[in-house]
Amino acid sequence: MQLLHIDSSPRRARSHTRQLSSSFVNEWQIRNPHDTIARRDLGADPLPHVTEEWIAAAFTPPNERTETMQTALRISDELIDELLKADLIVAGIPFYNFGMPSGFKAYVDQIVRIGRTFAFDPNLPESPYTPLVKGKRMIALISRGDGGYEAGGPNESMNHLDPHLRTVFGFIGITDIEIIAAENDEWGGQALQDSLQNALQRAQQIAVQETSTC
Ligand SMILES: Cc1cc2nc3c(=O)[nH]c(=O)nc-3n(C[C@H](O)[C@H](O)[C@H](O)COP(=O)(O)O)c2cc1C
């Protein structure tokens, strides 16, 4: 198995999403010492946003791309190659302003690419879009400052992160997504501790389950 471990919090030791993702990965490593783990730290090493050159290059057929265009897509190619090699993606994602942080969005914009992770054919009868990424599972480890954003909770309608993740990763073919969230960072105290403990337990449980199914 190949695991891709992504973190996107700009915080380091104080980050709950980093704590959740490292807890999962540590448990995984103990059980699967021969697996390979690729690492992306979008908080420590932010990615560039897409540019006009990037867009022009992405929508030019590969055999017609100039050297400058190929350069514009180099980071995107590297990220997509890394993603395609992974069987399991473990991503720590803070909840910022009701959605994903810009560092993670920059990653999404680099990996959702015509001809590489999705195909476009206007002549197809049902949908012009075909996802090109197959057979992957994703574990999204989220932390939120407030509470009640879960399904059925009072703030569910303001949670744009969970549906966005399912839509955008589903669009490229990653539909098997488990979302685990800790809440109440802003409140602290017992409310935070309980929520974090539950999320850590669930993350560990999945690491154990995944091991026994692969
Ligand atoms: C820029 C910014 C925006 C945030 N927006 C929200 C928000 O909309 N709703 C919320 O519940 N918490 C919000 N928070 C709190 C974070 O979700 C919370 O601190 C979370 O634990 C961050 O993840 P981390 O611990 O991995 O850094 C925000 C925090 C920051 C820094």
UniProtKB/TrEMBL annotation:
MF annotations from Gene Ontology: electron transfer activity; FMN binding; oxidoreductase activity, acting on NAD(P)H as acceptor; oxidoreductase activity, acting on NAD(P)H, quinone or similar compound as acceptor
Cofactor(s) the protein needs: FMN
Binding site for FMN: S9
Keyword Zinc: no
Co-factor remark: Binds 1 FMN per subunit.
Positions of the Flavodoxin-like fold domain: 1-205
Domain of life: Bacteria
Keywords: Flavoprotein, FMN, NAD, Oxidoreductase
InterPro entries: Flavodoxin_fold, Flavoprotein-like_sf, FMN-dep_NADH:Q_OxRdtase_AzoR1, NADH:quinone_OxRdtase_FMN_depd
EC number assigned by the record: 1.6.5.-, 1.7.1.17
Catalytically driven reaction(s): 2 a quinone + NADH + H(+) = 2 a 1,4-benzosemiquinone + NAD(+); N,N-dimethyl-1,4-phenylenediamine + anthranilate + 2 NAD(+) = 2-(4-dimethylaminophenyl)diazenylbenzoate + 2 NADH + 2 H(+)
Coiled-coil regions, chain positions: none
Reported function: Quinone reductase that provides resistance to thiol-specific stress caused by electrophilic quinones. Also exhibits azoreductase activity. Catalyzes the reductive cleavage of the azo bond in aromatic azo compounds to the corresponding amines.
Protein family (similarity comment): Belongs to the azoreductase type 1 family.
Subunit composition and interactions: Homodimer.
Name of the featured protein: FMN dependent NADH:quinone oxidoreductase
Organism this protein belongs to: Blastopirellula marina
Organism placement in taxonomy: Bacteria, Pseudomonadati, Planctomycetota, Planctomycetia, Pirellulales
